[in-house]
């Protein structure tokens, strides 16, 4: 298929783009400037330089495609982009894979696609846009919901491994709050596989959680990072106010959510097989190895 892709140069997109090409699809990547165009063309895609809020451009590109994957989701982008894609795909039955986020479900020890929404303020805007995609007639609209994405040394895991270490004879890695909260996690390459499977085989109106099944606590992640870095003081808890002062109130509220998910539906319905190294293993000996950890 010929796929219109946004966010191709972003963290998730740099795994999704090669996966699409490996599976035999051709990709037109919507990018903002010539520099990004060079990147996606070097990766094997055709670049389309323009703005994701340019309704006529997006509608035309969607019309000429066999399906759309939208990774560059954002509060200011999504309403215009979604409307344009649905205009371009109207009545075609072609796939449109939109991006959600695990924080939508709030604190929950067994998140599934049917769990009630309880988003933090930071991502409360997502729900209305997702509903438009899922309810669109004549289009195979779906939402892939990434959990905490890690891999290749990037993503939110850096908030843990790059945390302040304090001063003194026994420096200790600062946690996010007390670290008791669980994070549902997924390797970025496994997530890329899920996007492609949803595009190819997903059903209209369906949500697919991108959760690899490992749900470590932030304290476990912090202790692994501290041990790998040889920090004599191990880890030290922060109050929510201290973390908020360091990371901002909105992000702190989201990172303090206690979330676990098995991601079973994608495995059963789409044959998804996440098999990337766990985030704990990545911190100890993988892409977040001690040599890459910044000091305070």
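-> sequence recovered:
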């Amino acid at each position: 298929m010929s796929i219109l892709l946004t966010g191709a140069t972003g963290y998730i997109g740099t795994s999704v783009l090669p996966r699409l090409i490996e599976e035999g699809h051709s990709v037109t990547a919507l990018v903002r400037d010539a520099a990004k165009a060079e990147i996606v063309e070097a990766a094997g895609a055709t670049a389309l330089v323009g703005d994701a809020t340019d309704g006529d451009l997006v509608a035309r590109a969607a019309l000429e495609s066999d399906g759309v994957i939208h990774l560059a989701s954002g509060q200011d982008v999504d309403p215009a982009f979604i409307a344009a894609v649905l205009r371009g795909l109207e009545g075609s039955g072609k796939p449109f894979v939109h991006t959600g986020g695990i924080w939508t479900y709030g604190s929950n020890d067994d998140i599934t696609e049917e769990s009630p929404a309880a988003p933090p303020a930071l991502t409360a805007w997502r729900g209305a846009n997702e509903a438009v995609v899922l309810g669109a007639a004549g289009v195979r609209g779906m939402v892939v919901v990434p959990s905490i994405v890690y891999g290749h040394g990037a993503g939110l895991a850096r908030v843990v491994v790059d945390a302040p270490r304090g001063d003194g004879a026994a420096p200790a890695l600062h946690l996010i709050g007390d670290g008791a909260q669980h994070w549902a996690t997924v390797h970025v390459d496994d997530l890329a596989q899920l996007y492609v499977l949803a595009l190819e085989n997903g059903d209209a109106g369906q949500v697919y959680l991108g959760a690899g099944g490992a749900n470590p606590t932030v304290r476990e992640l912090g202790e692994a990072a501290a041990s790998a870095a040889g920090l004599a003081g191990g880890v030290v808890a922060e109050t929510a106010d201290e973390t908020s002062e360091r990371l901002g109130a909105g992000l702190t509220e989201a990172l303090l959510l206690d979330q676990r998910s098995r991601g079973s539906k994608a495995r059963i319905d789409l044959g998804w097989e996440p098999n990337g190294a766990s985030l704990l293993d990545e911190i100890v000996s993988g892409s977040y190895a001690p040599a890459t950890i910044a000091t305070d």
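The longest strand covers residues 140-146.
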